[in-house]
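Sequence in, structure out.
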Amino acid sequence: MESGNFWFAFGLTLFAGLSTGIGSALAFFTNSTNTRFLSVSLGFSAGVMVYVSFVEILQKAKESLLLDFGEKTATLYTILAFFAGILIIALIDRMIPSFENPHEIRRVEDVIKNGAKDPRLVRMGLFTALAIAIHNFPEGIATFMVGLSDTSVAIPIAVAIAIHNIPEGIAVSVPISYGTGNKKRGFLLSFLSGLAEPVGALIAYLILMPFLSDTLFGFIFAGVAGIMVFISIDELLPTAREYGFHHHAVYGFIAGMAVMALSLLLFI
């Protein structure tokens, strides 16, 4: 693997992870949440990830496995790895209590209404930061592995995951900012919580790279597709709807698929 590929993939992962800072900034500079924007953006992110998972990533996974296995076996392994990815991220999601789950909706104005300097809010923010670190770890591996393989797919995926991290930044920053009365502290902790994704990328590099082969790559890619589909269906779309703009979320989802389809066409 060329060093340039590593730095490109790692840079995308760092960008996606630290985009929690955008959510932090929303909480830092505003007293309300632009729910319409977040609803459309989260739907868009889900559309990108679902489309690219089924149309591009699963296909690449199967092509890699075909180099060592026959058509039937390669297809079977692709399917099994896809659902294994779903199982892994689902188990991680189940480990996180719903109260601290970063995908439970948080509005700036809702927390302000509950008053400032409340230790319960601080606890909420700290546990949410920990939950995000655990939850985003496999996302970092997914972004990194896609970045190593295909730049045309990696960039829109990184942007989609970055959008998906905005509400996570709000979920950490808002309760800490208003629980301590210190917005800077909330901003900093929220920003740093996104480091779980580049850390996941580094661990994937150190552990998996010495053993990376077409077969292992195929299994990882199929698992990545499963992770992204689960994130989209279980987190992004429900959260987009909770912000109160159902049709905007759907329009964003369709737009995300269309943009992803167009971007793939440009690289044919």
